[in-house]
């Protein structure tokens, strides 16, 4: 390669951030200075290193989305790691703490009994304040100089899981529209029955209680999955169903 072609591009050293061959845009270096990450120089353009495979299109797109999300959430890194520890129940008292905090919040809402407009306004106002204050206060509270390689790797995994969840949601949304185009009658019946069932449940159960149960279940779900509780009970249910099916087959014989 000619000397005139040697151009430098700044990349951020972050374990797991970029896979070999990835062309994802690196995050802003200034946002990571407090975490001890330093930019290095890579020569380019030029041939790939020996053994360096070219990443397929979908995988490169996944890496690019993950890198972009990491850049957007870099101010929330410490908070996200702490929330991840709580939701995965790294300590025994985290599950009752989650239920206690959620119960306290809903008791306050029940006591104040705000209107829908007031509740939505307060919720959005809280999100705006958190979006402004968290990136400023988080490094001072958690200690930005303690950011380690393991924490950066876990932060990358969290962002990758968020991208995976977003892609799944978009995929289900597209499948719904595909069903509408290909099988409109089935789409119509499915939507009517599902919405009618939801409306019936909402009529039978108080709105605030139903919301409390949904929020509590969603917050406990990662810990249940992490500790294998969900898979355990699903396995038990499958075994019981198989036993019932075998008993019916024996009776039919």
Automatic annotation (TrEMBL):
The chain crosses the membrane at residues 92-112, 118-138, 186-203, 209-230. Residues 11-22 have a biased composition (Low complexity). Keywords: Membrane, Transmembrane, Transmembrane helix. One of its GO terms (cellular component) is Sec61 translocon complex. It comes from the Eukaryota. GO terms for biological process: cotranslational protein targeting to membrane. Residues 1-31 are annotated as: Disordered. Residues 76-233 form the RETREG1-3/ARL6IP-like N-terminal reticulon-homology domain. The keyword Transmembrane helix applies. It is found in: Membrane. The keyword rRNA processing does not apply. Its main location: membrane. It is a multi-pass membrane protein. PANTHER family: ADP-RIBOSYLATION FACTOR-LIKE PROTEIN 6-INTERACTING PROTEIN 1, ADP-RIBOSYLATION-LIKE FACTOR 6-INTERACTING PROTEIN. This is RETREG1-3/ARL6IP-like N-terminal reticulon-homology domain-containing protein. It comes from Macaca fascicularis (Crab-eating macaque). The lineage of its organism: Eukaryota, Metazoa, Chordata, Craniata, Vertebrata.
